[in-house]
């Protein structure tokens, strides 16, 4: 790796265990600067309950502007029981919803990866999940969660009807499929596109657009199609058949939660959400662990920092194009797990658990 101009990062630790696990990432950033000649210009700000407390809003416009200006955003988690009973506009969770919306982060990437050392934590048998490495790409700003008409209508007999509509346009499908195909080229070269074209028009269009894009630009990638219900079944029956899965908002929501449980460890899973690239090729992107603010263990120093650390590795890979640094961090995580070190959430019965900072230190030592 060579010296480079500083990369602008916006770091938003948030609430609960967010600041605790982010601290360990900050140590890794410092290590990369000192030992690998990288240079980060880090700006840190408050979001969620922490921002409500100081500024009266879950996120300030100024923070959204900073997110636009940054090369990437590293997010912790928001959610604070002290703000659980306030109105919708004062929910800490609005911070992340607003960021996703304002930055138009349309592609949500969730890897489900089984580390050899944690293969027993899976809900499935070791021989079914050993080596599992799936990437689910979920369209995240369109589809049935946002389509109109929507609402609850009262009928003439006084009963009601609830309406949601799944709408997808050619361009919405194409841009997310493109993300999936590009990813597959850097992985095992296979994309499985998932919809329900047998009963849904939007699914029919989905399949058609993905097929055409593939034929036009991505013939080097292997494309298959699967109905969403079958995909759920196949993920449990034989998950290693998948490399990249691309799907709409609703099916992606369900399938990515399902896939995360194949790995059996919530505190281990990172994610990325990517936006639309501008003329220069720069695209807004936000990286965050799958887990929430975990108020039940906040302040105890026992949270697993690996999901946050792996989210930072994704940031290095996808937003900064620093593949080597990302790989180094991922290898260090594997090695530390292989050495038997465990935080409480992944420790087996009778296994001694280490603290958040001990896990962070162990990663640096391996690095
Ligand atoms: P959100 O709605 O913000 O997603 P949630 O209600 O789904 O939050 P989490 O905050 O993710 O829940 O916590 C779910 C459980 O997992 C809690 O018992 C929490 O302590 C545990 N947990 C979550 N993240 C971690 C972590 N990094 N290390 C250890 N335990 C964790
Ligand atoms: Mg949750």
Automatic annotation (TrEMBL):
Transmembrane segments: none annotated. Its main location: cytoplasm. Mg(2+) binds at residues 229, 253, 257. The keyword Secreted does not apply. This is 3-isopropylmalate dehydrogenase. The keyword DNA repair does not apply. It comes from Acetobacter thailandicus. Pathway: Amino-acid biosynthesis; L-leucine biosynthesis; L-leucine from 3-methyl-2-oxobutanoate: step 3/4. Homodimer. Belongs to the isocitrate and isopropylmalate dehydrogenases family. LeuB type 1 subfamily. NAD(+) binds at residues 292-304. Substrate binds at residues 100, 110, 138, 229. The record marks 145, 196 as: Important for catalysis. GO terms for molecular function: 3-isopropylmalate dehydrogenase activity. It catalyses: (2R,3S)-3-isopropylmalate + NAD(+) = 4-methyl-2-oxopentanoate + CO2 + NADH. It is found in: Cytoplasm.
């Amino acid at each position: 790796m060579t010296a480079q101009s500083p990369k602008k990062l916006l770091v938003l630790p948030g609430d609960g265990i967010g600041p605790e696990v982010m601290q360990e990432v900050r140590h890794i950033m410092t290590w990369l600067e000192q030992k690998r000649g990288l240079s980060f210009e880090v700006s840190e700000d408050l979001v969620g309950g922490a921002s409500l407390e100081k500024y009266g809003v879950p996120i300030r416009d100024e923070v959204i502007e900073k997110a636009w200006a940054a090369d990437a955003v590293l997010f912790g988690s928001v959610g604070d029981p002290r703000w659980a009973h306030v109105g919708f506009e004062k929910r800490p969770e609005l911070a992340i919803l607003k960021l996703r919306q304002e930055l138009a982060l349309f592609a949500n990437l969730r890897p489900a990866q089984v580390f050899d050392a944690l293969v027993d934590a899976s809900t499935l048998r070791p021989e079914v999940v050993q080596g599992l490495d799936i990437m689910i790409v979920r369209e995240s700003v369109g589809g049935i969660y946002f389509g109109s008409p929507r609402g609850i209508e009262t009928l003439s007999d006084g009963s009601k009807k609830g309406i949601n509509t799944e709408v997808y346009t050619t361009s919405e499908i194409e841009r997310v499929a493109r993300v999936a195909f590009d990813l597959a080229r850097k992985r095992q070269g296979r994309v499985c596109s998932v919809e329900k074209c047998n009963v849904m028009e939007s699914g029919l269009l989905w399949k058609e657009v993905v097929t055409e894009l593939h034929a036009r630009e991505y013939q080097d990638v292997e494309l298959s199609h699967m109905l969403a219900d079958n995909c759920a079944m196949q993920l449990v029956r034989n998950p290693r058949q998948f490399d990249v899965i691309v799907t709409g908002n609703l099916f992606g929501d369900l399938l990515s939660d399902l896939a995360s449980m194949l790995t059996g460890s919530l505190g281990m899973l990172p994610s990325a959400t990517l936006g639309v690239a501008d003329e220069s090729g720069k695209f807004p992107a936000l990286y965050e662990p799958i887990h929430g603010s975990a108020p039940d263990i906040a302040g105890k120093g026992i949270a697993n920092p690996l999901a946050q650390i792996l989210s930072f590795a994704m940031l290095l890979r996808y937003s900064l194009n620093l593949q080597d640094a990302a790989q180094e961090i991922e290898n260090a995580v594997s090695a530390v797990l292989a050495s038997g070190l465990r935080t409480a959430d992944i420790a087996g019965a009778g296994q001694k658990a280490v603290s958040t900072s001990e896990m962070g230190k162990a990663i640096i030592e391996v690095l």
